[in-house]
Design brief:
It is a single chain. By secondary structure, the chain is mainly α. It has one domain: Helix Hairpins. The chain contains 4 helices and no strands. The longest helix has about 40 residues.
Length: about 120
């Protein structure tokens, strides 16, 4: 049982490595996530705000992985130039974009007061 758990974790970590290696947008989101985590460490907002920011970070990374998986799956099932494939991929990109805009709004609501306070002092 423990052996199966370790094998599953190994496969999951390999999956994270693959998406990091092959998906530029995932790498960009990871860099942004590290910057936001640094801001959490520097500004130390209340736990509720920090938790919200962490949930948003995880959500964006998971959505980016889902987007990447579905794009690859669609490429296997249908040719890249098929009109419906373009529509589906554009909709998936819209999903990640909307979530990313939401993440920026959450980040601004949490961090802007701390940034103003930091520069006013």
């Amino acid at each position: 049982m423990i052996k199966n758990l370790f094998r599953s974790v190994k496969h999951a970590i390999h999956g994270i490595w693959l998406v990091f290696r092959y998906e530029q947008n995932f790498r960009i989101h990871c860099v942004a996530a590290l910057c936001v985590i640094a801001a959490l460490i520097i500004f130390q907002p209340p736990k509720q705000e920090a938790l919200l920011v962490i949930i948003v970070i995880i959500s964006i990374l998971v959505l980016e992985i889902i987007n990447s998986v579905l794009e690859r799956l669609i490429d296997v099932l249908k040719p890249r130039l098929h009109h419906q494939v373009k529509i589906i991929k554009d909709m998936m990109a819209a999903m990640v974009l909307i979530a990313s805009i939401g993440a920026v709004v959450v980040g601004a609501l949490v961090f802007v007061p701390y940034i103003f306070e930091f520069f006013i002092k």
